[in-house]
Amino acid sequence: MSTDELADHVAQLSLIDHHVHGVARGPLDRAAFEQLITESDRPMMSTFDSQLGVAIRRHCAPLLGLEPLVSADAYLEARSALDESELSRIFLTATGVSDYLVDTGYSGDLVTSVDELAQLSGSRTHEVVRLEAELEYVAEHESDVSAVPDAFLKRLESRTKGAVGLKSIVAYRHGFGFDPSEPSRAEVLTALDRWYSNRDRLSDPVLLRWLLWTGARRGLPLQLHVGFGDSDLQLDKTNPTLLTEWLRRIEPLGTQVVLLHCYPYHREAGYLAHVFPHVSFDLGLTTMYVGARAATVLAEGLELAPFGKVLYSSDAFGPAELHYLGATLWRRAITAVLGGFVAEGEWSPADAGRVAGLIGRENAVRLYGIGG
Amino acid sequence: MSTDELADHVAQLSLIDHHVHGVARGPLDRAAFEQLITESDRPMMSTFDSQLGVAIRRHCAPLLGLEPLVSADAYLEARSALDESELSRIFLTATGVSDYLVDTGYSGDLVTSVDELAQLSGSRTHEVVRLEAELEYVAEHESDVSAVPDAFLKRLESRTKGAVGLKSIVAYRHGFGFDPSEPSRAEVLTALDRWYSNRDRLSDPVLLRWLLWTGARRGLPLQLHVGFGDSDLQLDKTNPTLLTEWLRRIEPLGTQVVLLHCYPYHREAGYLAHVFPHVSFDLGLTTMYVGARAATVLAEGLELAPFGKVLYSSDAFGPAELHYLGATLWRRAITAVLGGFVAEGEWSPADAGRVAGLIGRENAVRLYGIGG
Amino acid sequence: MSTDELADHVAQLSLIDHHVHGVARGPLDRAAFEQLITESDRPMMSTFDSQLGVAIRRHCAPLLGLEPLVSADAYLEARSALDESELSRIFLTATGVSDYLVDTGYSGDLVTSVDELAQLSGSRTHEVVRLEAELEYVAEHESDVSAVPDAFLKRLESRTKGAVGLKSIVAYRHGFGFDPSEPSRAEVLTALDRWYSNRDRLSDPVLLRWLLWTGARRGLPLQLHVGFGDSDLQLDKTNPTLLTEWLRRIEPLGTQVVLLHCYPYHREAGYLAHVFPHVSFDLGLTTMYVGARAATVLAEGLELAPFGKVLYSSDAFGPAELHYLGATLWRRAITAVLGGFVAEGEWSPADAGRVAGLIGRENAVRLYGIGG
Q: Burial of A197 by CB count in 10 Å (0-12 exposed, 13-18 middle, 19+ buried)?
């Protein structure tokens, strides 16, 4: 298998995007579009002046009939000539993704549902249920604090019936510096009481780790946001090595933990995947946001990590360009990285092809029991 | 624009070195020179045995009429044949820097003043005022503790009349793990009392964060030393993500914060610049010290960072070789990095040329309101 | 010196492997072998699915008469046809290592002794004595707590008579977040009392830092495990910058500290080596485990580090493939990195050759006073 043959093989891989969100429901004007291609929640200079912005001009423009690297203005003009569902269909049908695992816990009203994404893309979709959102839902509907623990379990059971995974955003709400032990029922009730008294955002560390333990006991793969995200987190508190003792304690439960995104802690994630059999990770979101640097970052994630413990995701949300770009940049990056190992004589072409398939698809098939 | 054309374009860019110090006043013997090409404050084996040492032999030797990569002995011999101001003129007039922003708060007696640097270089110079040095000055001249807060404000007002920025070295004096809130006048007075009682080095976290808040209220861009420096700091305490909550709190003031150097936390700096509209950063000092590795490190800084938020500086202090080397290595590095993106087909040549101009000059023009 | 000549020069360098363990005593079946090519202490999918696994197939297969990159099965079949001491001889005599510095403090019964390693390899061997193991030995033989401090000093004196260095695994037992001051005799006795009362694993921070101080007072180079290792440590607690204040305090003792492995904190290690004259480091274990990525990681370690402060080690333990692979991957990596600097015109070929010799051999000769 030559480099070209590897590129062909990777281009034809049917990917599983194991962590993604819906595409935008309504039309996106320039301001809305620019706000969705940054993780910042603040107004900024043009967000096209970034690796992601250049990558959109480079890789998405041709799908709208434009030359690669046209100006942002020309790109947005072409984009505005199509309606959002037509745009979604164009990009989603070009991703080469057979299965999307959709996190429905974030701004679900702004983006398509799990079923709508399936219709637009022609791919299979599966749900990933966000723990914090479910507790918030229960709290809105259950006024009796003492009934919340059972109500939450019941809610989780019903919500996860057809789901393939769980997700936690404890990284945003508290960071990973929490007590690794499982809280007692009494601790949980006290914390719920406190929370019910003011009903501010769910950020109580007792409740958050109760969710983590409850999620880990559920048995489905548990996805954790790690590292890079918006300004609402403090990056150093999301270093996944802070999870070490908690990972040791939940190991006997047999639940798989999947660290998402991980930048700039992807080497740390690789270490955890190396030493713990129940830890996997991806470089979703990252691969897309770093654009022309995707291969370098991806390669750093392939140092200590066993090749059976790395996954593909886009973490795309909103414009379908992101769903497409995640897949496209990952394909370019993995080809460059593994093709580089082959070119240096360090790997065989067969090794490269097989590992690309593990990361792009087969590890997710095994982990989530889907896709076949 | 071909790679060669990009290199030409970058070679001709008129840079703004937005954080620098003066050049050495007196002659430098071998020991003094070697001590100034390391951040260590300890005696060492030859400091030429380092990336910076090799870079001096590689890039500075030709300006003294020597072959690139002559021995350190030959280099020092040629150097010793010229007086320091002649050396300064040789290197300073070759930097292609139109404007120097000069931090005058460190060992100002050993190096040229803001005006002298202008004369030697033929470039414009502007002052950056160091907050800690100004409070130390006030403390030397004001014996009444209760008068210090007003005296400091008055001093700051007078010192910053012609200045373009402020600088803090809280990274050295305490690290970034300080209480992010603004201290009350009572807290400040108590802390001043404590400090006046022993007059040791200014390292009280209350006073340091009072300086930061006062600096942020002044409105001028506020430069913060981040990461790599001499043995006087503890590196992990200078991780800029520790500033997150403080950055959130000063955001309403509208002051721009500029993170300096940042190694090995330049990816973290890129994240902060990505999510906060009032955060920029550079890889000054770093680009110079890592020598042949400058392109790699610079590229890591260009992953998440919006291109309007990255600046050029040398942080040179002492031998004018450093002022020259900062600019020269940055030009080589940015050409290699952006030219590489173009060669891979990921960026257009025009993108590369424009982003080089933003980082080398235009972002500083906008941020500091200088240079035009 | 062309790139080929540099490769030849590096290939012929007589290395000093300044931190290594013995080779396996008994035969290794597939399960045992796979468990020894991972740092995980948990059962896993095939550990051949990793950079180290591919590197074994790539670089070790030819020494067993196989094609590079044969399958793991074919490799293991060829391996099983030879007895372990024959395998050891094959790989050890191909390393080009003149001197092994052997850490005897870990699972010494499973691997060859210092003398046996010399016999199998035909190289010189020297002992590195592990501080924690010696205190555990004393505790097994001395029931009177008050006699332990003197007994430990006597034991250390006798054990280090022919030794060339000391080693500490405080990274595993507590992490580097310990009080940097030397504990008093009273503190040590209290801590010993506490430890003697339950005799669990030696992880008391008072005792661990007493060992560090005692080791530093002994004067021999003191090796510290840093960063990546098995699941028994918490990675972020092994960031070597946490040692800063302790390094400052022991500096007057004149003892050299050598940071081992360091991944992913090798840039931090380079910073410490830059600012502290008594700090050196290596990328042992790392270079081997990251396989095809070795050059990239090694290059990151050569940014701030003075070239007189970087060493070579394998940290191999068990299968002699690892002793061979450490040397082989280091040679490939250093050739690629330094040859790259030469190819870019940033270094002279002579610089590259000399620095390879410093790192591979001469720095260890000077530091440990061996090998000549």
A: exposed
Q: Is A42's CB within 8 Å of B277's CB?
A: yes
Cα C170 from chain centroid (whole Å): 14
For Cα atoms B305, B103, B293, give the angle at the middle one, nearest 5 degrees. Answer: 45
Q: Which of B60, B31, B59, B55 is nearest to B45 (CA)?
A: B31
Segment A185-223, tens digit of pLDDT: 999 999 999 999 988 899 999 999 999 999 999 999 999
Write out the two tokens for A321.
Answer: 């360009």
Q: At what angle do helices A320-343 and A84-92 cross, to 10 degrees?
A: 20
The secondary element (H helix, E strand) that includes residue A10 is helix A3-12
Backbone angles phi, psi at C20, to 5 degrees: -155, 170
CB A320 within 8 A of CB A90: yes
List the CATH code of the domain at A3-24+90-368: 3.20.20.140
Ranges of residues in chain C with a pLDDT under 50 are: none
In the block, which residue shows the tokens 């002659």? B27
Per the CB < 8 Å rule, is B50 touching C245?
no
Residues pairing with A130 in the sheet: A167
Residues in chain A within 8 Å Cβ distance of C39:
274-275
Distance separating alpha carbons of residues C44 and B120, to the nearest angstrom:
65
Contacts (Cβ under 8 Å, ≥6 apart) of A64: A75, A78, A79, A82, A90
Closest CA to B255 of B224, B226, B278: B278
**Sign of the torsion angle spanned by Cα atoms A322, A324, A325, A331:** positive
Integer Cα distance of A82 and B346 in angstroms: 25
Give the residue ranges of DSSP H helices in chain C: 3-12, 30-36, 51-55, 72-80, 84-92, 114-121, 131-141, 148-159, 170-173, 185-198, 205-218, 244-250, 266-275, 286-289, 294-301, 320-343, 349-357, 363-368
Residues of B in contact with C275 (CB under 8 A): 39-42, 230-231
How far apart (Å, rounded) are the C-alpha atoms in residues B123 and C185? 62
Write down the pLDDT at residue C44: 67
Interface A–C counts its CB contacts (< 8 A) at 86
* Residues with Cβ within 8 Å of residue B227, at least 6 apart in sequence: B171, B235, B238, B239, B240, B261, B262, B263, B264, B265, B266, B286
DSSP 8-state assignment for residue B183:
P
Model pTM score: 0.97
Among A27-41, B332-346, C252-266, the range scoring the smallest mean pLDDT is A27-41
B45 confidence band (pLDDT: 50, 70, 90): confident
Q: How far apart are CA B89 and CA B93, in angstroms?
A: 6
Q: How far A244 CA lies from chain B's nearest CA (Å)? A: 20
pLDDT tens, residue by residue, B254-294: 999 999 999 999 999 999 999 999 999 999 999 999 999 99
Residue C313 burial (CB < 10 Å; 0-12/13-18/19+)? buried
Q: What is the pLDDT of residues A74-127, one digit of tens each?
A: 999 999 999 999 999 999 999 999 999 999 988 878 899 999 999 999 999 999
CB neighbour list of residue A293: distance below 8 Å, 6 or more residues apart: A51, B299, B300, B302, B303
Check residue A219 and give left, alpha or beta (phi > 0: left; psi -120 to 50: alpha). left
Inter-chain touch B38–C274, beta carbons under 8 Å: yes
Structure confidence by residue, pLDDT tens digits, C4-47: 899 999 999 999 999 999 999 989 999 999 999 998 887 667 88
Say how far apart CA A1 and CA A72 lie, in whole Å. Answer: 38
Q: Which of A359, A323, A281 is nearest to A92 (CA)?
A: A323
Closest approach of A127 to chain C, Cα-based (Å): 27
Number of Cβ within a 10 Å radius of residue B208 = 25
Q: At what angle do helices A349-357 and A3-12 cross, to 10 degrees?
A: 20
Boundaries of CATH 3.20.20.140 in chain C?
3-24+90-368
Nearest residue in chain A measured CA to CA from B339: A292
B277 and A228: CB-CB below 8 Å? Answer: no
